[in-house]
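=== RUN LOG ===
request id: a7f3
mode: sequence -> structure
chains: 1
length: 166
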Amino acid sequence: MALGLQDEIYGQQVLYRKGNVAYRASDASRLLIDAGAASMACATRFYSLGRQAWFRRGTVDQEPLPTATRFVFGSGLPTTVGYDFSGPWRQSDPSPIQADGDGGDSAWMNEAPSGWTGDTGCDMRALPGVGHMDIVNDDQALQLLAASAHSAQKGAPACVNTQSVP
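=== RESULT ===
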């Protein structure tokens, strides 16, 4: 949370709840202060990705990265994006708030680089059922990235979203 929860990624999705109070990405500092984490709220305001020029160029200004980039990630798995606290902030078993993702990052976060690329239809690929930590060992993901890297040596990296992998 110290890097902030960006409105550009999460929009108006409720990520945390305490009783009848809902917290969205834009409420990250208020959430931390309400939970008694004022120092982290200060760090969030200072280090937030939303304040970083490189992040804003892609996510807000939709300016593609200067080099060809490919993004391959898992999808279709329940992913915890926040918590619903029915008791005290320090309760040990809050109910998870879940969304689609790779079990580690939400689809909203995995799809955030769409602003950093000139052609999402070519540069991005979601692999259904592949988990966040499993992607680095997934044969299909590795084959897609290897083919893209090999073709980059010839001048133009292959699209990861149009390749068929056995």
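=== NOTES ===
The chain has two domains: 1-63, 65-166.
Residues 139-152 form the longest helix (14 residues).
=== END ===
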